[in-house]
Design goal:
It is a single chain. By secondary structure, this protein is of the alpha/beta class. The protein contains 14 helices and 14 strands. Helix 3 runs antiparallel to helix 11. The longest helix has 23 residues. It is globular.
């Protein structure tokens, strides 16, 4: 198909994420990708600031990942996982157990991050049912979180400011506490927050199956950063009140925050961990839910005799093979040095934006950079300006943010910084005439994106 035909078919038949039909703006047609670049059908070459939504950490057309995919396709593209197993799944499970905290020994493969959260919720509830405590079937989380778009994950996304507010009254009503304090707010704020959590868990522990959080970084709910010490404190409280801890590391796993997993920065192991996104280096959809031997064996002794879940494409051999190759690339690279370098260059380049009228906050952690505005981003103006600067970004709500591939060079980072600056300027200019409501410049409003 030529460019015009692709655009016409897309406009007529294809429904894109988080949007209506027909689309309010025509999506750009990608012809191919290589390294950190997307090449559009019109010939434009863009630095990918999004890693295809956190996933393509090694960039595109990586020779080692390409070879793993081709090799596996020549032997077995897929086989059902019920009653059968295969080498790529066994190899990947072994790798994941070795690299995650010690108590996590059992691996349940899923086909997307959202489904891995569904599985984690089932694990937690079935665990307590199998222990003869069926009343422990609720979940607690903090405001501003995002865990996916299927029903159990939607129930623990922010109930008011998130994307799923329309489902109130349909979804199970879970327990919410305020958003965690910003990592820069100090130990006093963390101690007060943990005291509040202790009280809430003490009051609700008999009904709670688990607490579920995104450790250290909240993703699509607002891109906030909180202290690893807060996560460590939460781990202690969950143990004290007999509540399982689920860490959703779908976005933060595999080095994005500067440690292999965000839980590592806190020095903790959750009872259940969800992984996805960067697991396959962005090549194929695959996720995993890891848990402890005690939880797995308790569930297996219960009334169902096992976990009542089984995706058709569970442990797809192609996905498992490329995931193993992605982990090889990660472990052989210098990501532990490079990710902080990426963060430092982004922080230095974006620092001047903190003084721009209309910018609430600029924050960077690992290879994640966020510019928060005091009004909703003008998506068209911001995107057009970024593309004109040679950068691909996908802002949402009040945030213009980036999480580039780890292979990005310093020169490409500078292009990315310029693109973010252009997007900020264009969005503020476009919304100025609309009289956007402003928050005092420089104030970090914890509720501004929740």
């Amino acid at each position: 198909m030529d460019h015009a035909t692709i655009t016409a078919v897309d406009a007529e038949h294809v429904w894109h994420p988080y949007g209506g039909f027909p689309a309010s703006t025509a999506p750009r047609v990608v012809a191919d990708c290589e390294g950190v670049h997307l090449r559009l059908a019109d010939g434009s070459r863009l630095v990918d600031g999004m890693s295809s939504w956190w996933a393509a950490v090694h960039g595109y057309r990586h020779p080692q990942l390409d070879a793993a995919l081709a090799d596996q396709a020549g032997r077995m593209s897929h086989v059902m996982f019920g009653g059968l197993t295969h080498e790529p799944a066994a190899r990947l499970a072994s790798r994941l157990v070795a690299m995650t905290p010690e108590p996590l020994q059992k691996v349940f493969f899923a086909d997307s991050g959202s489904v891995s959260v569904e599985v984690a919720v089932k694990m937690a509830i079935q665990y307590w049912r199998s222990r003869g405590r069926p009343a422990k079937n609720a979940l607690l989380t903090w405001r501003g979180g995002y865990h996916g778009d299927t029903f159990a994950p939607m129930s623990v996304c922010d109930p008011e400011g998130g994307m799923h507010a329309m489902w109130r009254g349909v979804l199970p009503e879970q327990m919410f506490v305020p958003a965690p304090p910003d990592a820069r707010d100090g130990e006093g704020a963390q101690e007060r927050y943990l005291t509040m959590l202790d009280t809430r868990l003490a009051a609700a522990g008999d009904r709670l199956a688990a607490v579920i959080v995104e450790p250290v970084v909240q993703g699509a709910g607002g891109m906030r950063f909180h202290s690893p010490a807060l996560v460590a404190g939460l781990r202690r409280l969950c143990r004290a009140h007999e509540v399982l801890l689920i860490c959703d590391e779908i976005a933060t796993g595999f080095g994005r925050t500067g440690t292999l997993f965000a839980s590592d920065a806190a020095g903790i192991s959750p009872d259940i961990m969800c992984l996805g996104k960067a697991l396959t280096g962005g090549y194929l959809t695959l996720a995993a839910t890891l848990t402890t031997t005690e939880i797995a064996e308790t569930i297996s002794r219960g009334e169902a005799g096992g976990l009542a879940h089984g995706p058709t494409f569970m442990a797809n051999p192609l996905a498992c093979a490329v995931a193993c190759a992605s982990l090889d690339v990660l472990e052989s690279s210098d990501w532990r040095r490079r990710v902080p370098q990426i963060g430092a260059r982004l922080a230095a380049g974006l620092a001047p934006l903190a003084h721009v009228d209309g910018v609430v906050d600029v924050r960077v952690l690992g290879a994640i950079a966020v510019v928060e505005l005091d009004r909703d981003v003008d998506l068209v103006a911001a995107t057009d300006a970024a593309v004109a600067s040679g950068v691909w970004l996908r802002p949402f709500r009040k945030l213009i943010y980036a999480m580039p591939p780890y292979i990005i060079s310093d020169e490409q980072l500078d292009v990315l910084v310029d693109g973010i600056g252009a997007a900020v300027a264009a969005s503020l200019a476009a919304t100025e005439s609309a009289g956007g409501q402003r928050i005092r410049r420089g104030h970090r409003d914890q509720e501004s994106t929740s």
